[in-house]
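User: My advisor, Dr. K., asked me to get a structural model of this assembly before our group meeting. I'm new to this, so sorry if the format is off. These are the inputs:
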Amino acid sequence: VLIVAERINASRKAIRAALETLDAAAIAVEVRTQAAAGAHYIDLNGGTFPGREAELLCWLVDIAQSETKLPLCLDSPDAEALAAALPRIKGERPMINSINLEPGRLARILPLAREYRAKLIALAQGEGVPAAAAPGKVELAVRLVERLVQGGMALDDIYVDPLLFPVATDSNAALASVTAMREIMARFPGVHTICGLTNVSHGLPARKLVNRTFLAGAIANGMDAAIIDPTDPLLMATLLGAEAVFGRDEYCVNFIEAFQAGKLS
Amino acid sequence: VLIVAERINASRKAIRAALETLDAAAIAVEVRTQAAAGAHYIDLNGGTFPGREAELLCWLVDIAQSETKLPLCLDSPDAEALAAALPRIKGERPMINSINLEPGRLARILPLAREYRAKLIALAQGEGVPAAAAPGKVELAVRLVERLVQGGMALDDIYVDPLLFPVATDSNAALASVTAMREIMARFPGVHTICGLTNVSHGLPARKLVNRTFLAGAIANGMDAAIIDPTDPLLMATLLGAEAVFGRDEYCVNFIEAFQAGKLS
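Assistant: The format is fine. Below is the predicted structure of the whole assembly, which you can bring to the meeting.
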């Protein structure tokens, strides 16, 4: 399961403060910590500081690249910020988080992804009311994936995000997302699915338990990437367990190694 | 999710000793503890003491019924033991664990289930080599369910067990079981699916983590009953979490109550 490490996000207070004061050391620590914890991509979200999106995203890219060789996930809906940051990428192909079916976003971000050979997180989301049930999510995802493939993207470079809603307000929200992910992967062999976890537990107590449980259930339905905090040891133990249980860790080699390294307790 | 409490099983040393010495108090404690922990059925497995299966199963039934009003799950492949124990059931309809496609077992246990209105755990298992992959499990389950329905069983009284194998020797074992459960429930709306968890982690370290992770993934695929130890607090927290996440706990009412009662930490 591909781990996109989520901690460098302006919605977190510490990151917002680091962005406001241009505290590069604070960002650097987050990059190193997540890389050491097992991240495969480092997500960079510079928030929405009016007129400064491009500047701050570039600042984050430069710091991240000075700390790690891991590929980066540029987390912005703003094509201008992405267009400014993408040329600075030095190492492995980046990921863009995210594109959806909104015509303006699709028309501006898809060419950038092609030009810079970026992978894409593709949100099952259009301009209207978001789809709550699995069939609606699948329909939106199918339309988006078909547009991306027509536009020259390889299925292997597309990570479909079903847009997970909180179960506290809709008991079927998580089932709808995992069912949609399973059906999208069956429809487009080779495409990936991805999800952030935190939305699912919005409004509930014991949120980390809820998030972990969702993660196990999503992996059991085929989800092969996740936007998570790799420094959360219980979450990582669940991820390693789910990989071992649900066919992503042959002979459970990684799981046994993690146990021997004391990472499962 | 229906909880069949598994602790009274002759494969456990303490229970075997209690059976050998007819220590009723030791059995009674297990009945009460599991009932208090949230069991819906108390499984009674008296083991294979040659010539004494019927006597010991009856002994367990009598003790259990003196301690709880919960229904019982008579866990024996031995039709004679079941025939002796079933007439002693006083309360709610019992469950029989289990029937399969072996002609002798099917021919003897199905009439008992009908006569005593027992629910049945139906193992996806014939006489030949057990099925490792999902299609084989589904095929065996379909044949068995059709035989049971022809024999007069209601789908709502049938709990299909896909026969879970260890992932340490077959990485696809758990995926095969959850896929089979999902397909069986789609094929026979109203039928239930059930599983013991411990097989999946055979040969691995951190077995409880593996079992919990499988439980979450199985519930995410529709499994609606489980043979578990309800006195394991982390396992029960995962079960409550999976019910809340995967559409079996409207507005997460049980989950929030469990949190407030301190059961999720």
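One thing worth pointing out at the meeting: DSSP finds ten helices and eight strands in chain A.

User: Perfect, thanks a lot.
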